[in-house]
Design goal:
About 10% of the residues lie in helices and about 40% in strands. The chain is mainly beta.
């Protein structure tokens, strides 16, 4: 009998309220929209879910890493850090230490303390804010605070190391070992001190593709807890002709005759090769419509049923045509079923199975409760045991953000004007971001507190900036934006990446600054800020 989902004991909370009342506080609830607007928003929601279904899991993870797409203008009066109450600021900072997306001090602009060469990437996060980084020379461990090299180990150029962190929760889940795969031939396991724990040759075989041409090799990825994930029956790039009106059962038979319908993933101990877990996906005729399609080839439209494996510190996943099965670090198999679900780790432990109807799972993958709507994990979540946040809307209903308690009941539901996503939950404030606005809601009631209305409504005509990452220090929320923004002094559009710090209490701009390279994420490693993009950097104060 699975354990009951009991409402956790309340955490120590703190309120983000001004030390003095402000006379220029923005108005509250949004205006109602006409019915035509509601239908348009419902269409947006349906198209968003359709695009979600068409992505590979890694593609979905990349979208989730920058969960909000919002146009943010950088106008707004700056608030001098000295005006904030020092004691209240210290208490807020202490209350959120160690939680996903939390860094030390965002009261003033930041400098680039260190940066990696282009092509380098973070392969794993160790405890104490130490990062395992790969480049053409091999893998090395660096201190996220200073960039100093702790240890290094040579590998062949092109080696893959992991398990790679993708979400803020992954970054907060330190690993004890890093696994490196070289040329699909050799696997090496190192601990967080750089000691080689094991090294062996991989016993993998290739197969010719359907046309008998180049060999097709398995997919192999470093996975959680010193393991590797292997997809032996990797589909080749061969596509199957498909025409509208084709019978799905006939299409499935064609796939089965070609040996392409039911992929199997093995999770092996990286050091010994011993098999830990094996999972397969069984494709049905009802799943054909969720497979990948391509157009424009010699035969017109073609079906491309490509299986994928993905591995992070929190799960290892096999996916095909909207079906997914996952393996937890403890070896439990989680069957996500259909509905284009994706497994997202929760900061308080367990997972969300995201879909049209989402489910809360425990650490073993056991179902605890259902949540109506697309449940999402904020980029910053300083209340990991709080209610689940889910975006609802469609079928003529205006989009809304709902908070769902441990018993499955809706605590509150708030209209959000447009299809937006929760970016941060800090103290008693939830920040959401959509295509035209950033707004803050009361985390206890859903009532709107402030809204940034200095946004660009017509992106095609006037440019845009996209929120691609967020971190907090308990008082301020730092957003990473990439695209075209408005210069606060000249009113002109400026292209590039920027960092924008907002006061969580009222949404005013604390500071802003340009960033040297593109930004697709902000992460916290041991409380130290790491910016991810074409160049990985550590931000702080020397």
């Amino acid at each position: 009998m699975p354990p009951r989902f009991r409402r956790p004991e309340p955490m120590t909370t703190f309120e983000l309220v001004p030390d003095d009342e402000r006379e220029d506080a923005p108005d509250g609830a949004p205006d109602d929209r006409p019915e035509e607007g509601r239908r348009h928003l419902a269409d947006l929601r349906d198209r968003a879910l359709a695009r979600w279904r068409g992505l590979s899991r890694r593609g979905r993870a990349a979208v989730a890493a920058g969960t909000a797409v919002v146009v943010v203008a950088v106008a707004g009066a700056a608030v001098a850090p000295g005006l904030l109450d020092a004691r209240a600021e210290r208490l807020r900072a202490e209350a959120v230490q160690g939680l996903p997306g939390v860094v030390d001090d965002l009261s003033a602009p930041l400098d680039v303390v260190w940066s990696l060469s282009e092509g380098s990437s973070v392969a794993a996060v160790f405890s104490g804010g130490v990062l395992a980084v790969t480049d053409s020379a091999g893998v090395r461990a660096i201190d996220a605070a200073s960039g100093h090299v702790v240890w290094e180990h040579p590998l062949d150029d092109g080696a893959m190391c992991g398990p790679t962190p993708w979400t803020p929760v992954d970054w907060r889940t330190p690993v004890r070992t890093v696994v490196c795969v070289e040329d699909l031939d050799t696997v090496t396991v190192l601990d967080d001190a750089g000691t080689v724990l094991g090294e062996r040759e991989l016993d993998l075989s290739s197969a010719s593709d359907d046309s008998g041409n180049a060999p097709v090799w398995p997919q192999v990825l470093p996975a959680a807890d010193g393991s590797v994930a292997v997809l032996d029956d990797l589909a080749s790039t061969t596509e199957f002709p498909w025409h509208e009106g084709d019978d799905d059962a006939d299409v499935l038979r064609t796939l089965r005759d070609a040996g392409r319908a039911d992929p199997t993933m093995r999770v092996l101990d990286a050091a010994t090769g011993e098999e830990r877990t094996e999972v397969s996906l069984h494709l049905s005729a009802d799943d054909i419509g969720s497979c990948g399609f391509s157009e424009g080839g010699p035969g017109g439209t073609a079906l491309a049923p490509q299986p994928w494996i993905d591995a992070t510190p929190t799960s290892t996943v096999l996916s095909l045509c909207g079906l997914e099965r996952a393996v937890t670090p403890m070896g439990d198999v989680v069957d996500l079923g259909d509905g284009a679900s994706m497994l997202a780790p929760l900061p308080g432990g367990g997972y969300l199975a995201q879909g049209d109807v989402s489910e809360v799972l425990d650490a073993h993958g056991e179902r605890l409760t259902a949540v109506r709507g697309l449940a999402q994990v904020p980029l910053v979540d300083a209340d990991p045991t709080g209610p689940v946040l889910a975006v609802r809307g469609g079928d003529g209903d205006a989009p809304a953000l709902a908070a769902v308690g441990a018993d499955g009941r809706t605590d509150w539901s708030s209209s959000i004007d447009e299809y937006a996503s929760p970016v941060a939950r800090v103290g008693d404030t939830v920040v959401v971001a959509g295509e035209t606005a950033v707004a803050a809601l009361d985390a206890r009631t859903g009532e709107e507190r402030w809204r940034r209305t200095d946004v660009i409504g017509d992106r095609d005509a006037s440019g845009s900036a996209y929120v691609s990452g967020a971190v907090t220090d308990g008082t301020r929320l730092l957003l990473a934006t990439t695209g075209a923004t408005v210069d606060a002094d000249t009113g002109e559009f400026v292209s590039g990446s920027r960092l924008l710090a907002l006061d969580l209490r009222d949404g005013t701009t604390v500071w802003e600054q340009p960033h040297e390279s593109d930004l697709w994420g902000l992460f916290s490693a041991g409380g130290h800020l790491v910016s991810a993009g074409s160049v990985m950097s550590g931000l702080g104060r020397p």
